[in-house]
Write the structure tokens for this entry.
Amino acid sequence: MAEARGAVAACVAAVLGSRGGANRVFEILELLAAEQQEAVASAVRGCGRLFGALLERGELFVGRLPAEEAVLDGPRSAEDKYRMWMRHRYRSCLDSLAELLAHEAFQVKELALCTLMKFVELEIRHPLVEPEWRGGFTFPRELLKVVVDGLIPLNEDASLLISRFQEYMEYDDVRYFVMKAVTESIGQVMQRTKERPLPIYQQNVFSLISPINMPNKERDLSKFMVKQENREEWKVSKLQAHKQAFEKMWLSFLKHKLPTGLYKKVLVILHDSILPYMNEPTLMMDFLTMAYGIGGAISLLALNGLFILIHQHNLEYPDFYKKLYSLLDPSIYHVKYRARFFHLADLFLSSSHLPAYLVAAFIKRLSRLALTAPPEALLMVIPFICNLFRRHPACRVLVHRPDGPEDLSEDPYIMEEKEPSESRALESSLWELQSLQNHYHPDVAQAAAVLNQSLSEIEDNISGLLELSACELFDREIKKKKADVPLEFEPVRGLFGKKNDIFAEHFTLD
Amino acid sequence: MGKAGKWKRKASVPGGSKGAAKSTVDVIKSNPFEVKVNKQKFNILGRKTKNDVGLPGVSRSKAIKKRTQTLLKEYKEKEKSNVFKDKRFGEYNTKLSPEEKMIKRFTLERQQNFGKNNIYNLNEDEELTHYGQSLAEIEKLNDIVDSDSDTEERGTLSAELTEAHFGGGGGLLCKKVSSGQEAEEEEKPKSRKELIEELIAKSKQEKQERQTQRESALELTEKLDNDWKEIQTLMVRKTPKSEKKDKEEKPKPDEYDMIVRELGFEMKAKPSDRMKTEEELAKEEQARLQKLEADRLRRMHGIDEKEEAKKKPKHISADDLADGFILDKDDRRMLSYKKEEEEDGNEESNENEEDEEEDNEHESEEESAAEDEEGVDEDNHSDLESDLESEEEGTGNKEQNQESNEDQSQNMEEQELKIEMSLKLNVLSFTYVWDNLLGNKAKLEKLFGFLLEYIGELATLDLPELKTIDRLVLPLYNLCQMFPESASDSMKFVLRDAAHDTEELIEVKGRATFPGLDMLIYLKITSLLFPTSDFRHPVVTPAFIYMSQLLTKCRITTLQDVVKGLFICCLFLEYVSLSRRFVPELINFLLGIFHISLPKKQAQGYTVVHPFTPVGKNLELLLVSDKKDLESWQKKNLPLSIVTRLKEMSKTELNHIRLSCLALCFDLTKKSAALYESLPSFHEIMDPVRILLKHHLPVKNKNVLCSQILSHFSLEFGRKLGGSKKEQERKRLIHKHKREFKGAIREIRKDNQFLARLQLEEIMERDAARKRKVKELLGSLATQEGEWKAMKRKKRKN
């Protein structure tokens, strides 16, 4: 496709060379809609070069642009007419570039994006609108809005393009205006679709806004695309303004119903990269309480955000522990977010002012559920329970009850009871952990056997155990060097040839 | 003394009453009105009846008597702070006879007086006595008492001796009591001189005997010392040879000793060479098995683990035979026969240690040979016979073996070779050892790895060659016995690869799939080669974790997955069958399998755990709704090959497999229920399964078999509730406690009644006394009045 590139280069040279060749700009603009990817790419590059040069030269009209028909008719100088006409070409170029953001080929998309951002940069330096007052700041907000709209299409995953865009987000002013543009876009799109969830769109928005890296201090606001002297006066240089924009953006995003997967993703980053950068984190209260009420993994994840609100922002949550208690079901030992949940549960249960019945109910429920847990979870939860015993000595009756009930056949604890105070946990004992002393994994059995001795005063540190995975366990075990390998002494008679082989009863070898 | 007298009377009461009571009991027993017969409804054989006849009167009077002795006394002394104390020596000690008591008391009294007297009694002319005889006199009896013998014979004073030496009153008394008949036989007492002579003779004889004994003991200890020194040099393991030699040289061996020892060794060597009889062999085998079993149990309880932490490498365990047999490396040439011995004879100096070691080896060889299959045995023997020619044959074998190694690794497709090969391998692994001592060991070690690989290949074929694998297991086992280290290493390697593959899958896709048949077979082989009951085992523990991962992480989407999962469940059960360890994943999985065999929307009352979900697309995977298939199904063993091919089956066959899976699942549940019944939270563990079976199976009533199994299962369950031995013991104790408690309450009640009666009596007595007194007073008044009136009358008359 060398010819297209050559043609474009010739056109650019002609347009830039003399006013007489200006009409050749149409050739380039036509190429932008070409079929071949290569042609389009070279056209985009040509556009970038051409209009970049024009912008630098100041050959584009500055100010409010009159309509195209009016341009030619009006009593203006030829110079003005030319600049206005060129400005119209520039606009149509921008339009087609924005369309190209939805091109099939990623190469083209990327090129279009870069070109558009280059224009943004140039427009900042050579503004096309007159500042409202002398020394005022201008930012090509419309242009950026076009870019942002192109980045978050309604029905196409644009995560690749978005990741390409991340480099521009490092500019504080660009980030600020992108946040504003996203807020606007969400408002428009969602209103148009009447609250119908748009999974792809929301996913795109999320992938655009989730990596936003907010500055922590005013001082960090130093990288601007706008290069002017007295920047301090500009609103964009205030952290407060940034936070406000950030907050608005997230609130407008979370206002709408999210698909479950996205819900989880939001909750995962919420406490870490959203809440700290909000002016008023308490505005998240509604979202979090709703999420907490949904149940399952989403509730588990909402816990973290809620905790921050409760802890740092005085949120009062009635029946918090009851809710936490009801979150305990067999799946907590199997889900991905196990480490996170137990980290938080550890925090919540660390208060020594909790009533004994409540802690006992938690202990009992955890240990009951432990009867279905995999070894890696058991290795974590047994020290967890031991820690609870250390913090709440009143619960030790669960382990040692001098005047226990006579009849062991029934456990007084009621598993189905939702209310911890009604579960009769304090009347029960931890037979589950005793059962686990027979667990097949030697470490688990040893951990459970700790309860046979008196507990030491110092708490176990479980932070290292939270993230334990079955794979790690396996590696740990297999890397153990042992001097001798005990062997089976019962001689074999074949694959299923053992005495009382279970397999021989049920399987045949064909 | 008055007090004492009173006490004496009281003390003598029980003795007297006892005799009386005995006679009265006899009288009463014969009196039909005093006897209460407890009627027995049924006669039960073998039950002891001790309460069939009661004597209420007697027991009541006994109780009352006891109360009067204890409670009454207490009652009477209720508000009194003074206490009578009987300080007489041994007054209540029934073990002392009255005579002894008197003697003790007498000595005590004398002791008391002795000090007191001394203060005032300046001239010490009091005679010292022993048993009433003056000590001075005893000293005059000039019998020779060796100080030596005195020390030796401490505490072993014979009756005669003491009697002769201290012929005091006590001794005389004793004699009178004990030897009444003797006195009759020889009425004429021996004269003093005779007695003493006899004594002297006896003591001399004893002394001589002792002397000889001591000498022989000394000799023995010396010999023992020598022996020990010798053994000690062998015991200390890592002393360099040169040092050892020095040590041996140092004590100049006595020629006599040497001869003695040589003779000793000759004597010892012979019986060990004798061919053992069948019985002996069997016994030895049994003992060995027992020892191994004991070892296994020890490892199962994880005792080793704790010890090992403390144990230093040089520590000699309690099980050590102290024969200097230490396994440093794995060069036990287990199955080497005579040839090796010859070589050894040439190669190395014949140290005692070596000898013993070899002895040991021979034993193990013989045993292991006995274990092996007959075919192999024959081969062994034939090879033994052709020992001489084995030079050439051996090399031939080697080549063959190498070839077959290559075969395995390279052209696996040659089907015909396989069976031949597996047979050959059995032979080879033995023949190989004989002639490869010099360097082929490494190759043989590798053979295990090759074999494993080969088995994997066989299992992954479209038509898995399971029969061949079955045969290959035996050589694998033998190789493993020979090279436990390398075997475990290659097994670990296989496991690690598999586990990492699964892990990668989980990371990439978020879920894993069940591995192929090869992995299942590897896991099964692991259980054959290594003891699965160990608390911690370098191969088995990782295998456990891997299986747990499979059961928790793998998604069940097809019938094959179900079969594989159930296979792993079987493996789990087999692994823990001896140690009875708890496997949560197993129960979870079985529950899940039951769950997917139910029609949708019936999951209530229980929660399924991870790989299974309460809702989802794979729910009714095991549901069979075709009635015809249900009726035509018969319990059959599942062929393992369906794991790889299931496609070309008809619907009916598929349904049948589903039912077989369910049957298998039921059986596994039953087995695991039996395995875990002793766990304290057995109920909680099995609760979901129970709920599911109870509530949902009747709905599925059409499945005839299921309901059958269910009834069986619930029966088992019902029985299980009875609890284990421990539980029973507990219950028994509780019952006993209750009974005792009731008894105690009854006693207390009776005590109170007794006291109340006593108080009432007292009150009545007091009242009666008062009445009497009042009457008396009134009477006297009346007489007074009467007299006065009479006087008046008289006066009037006058």
Remarks:
- The mean pLDDT of chain A is 80.
- Residues 78-100 of chain A form the longest helix (23 residues).
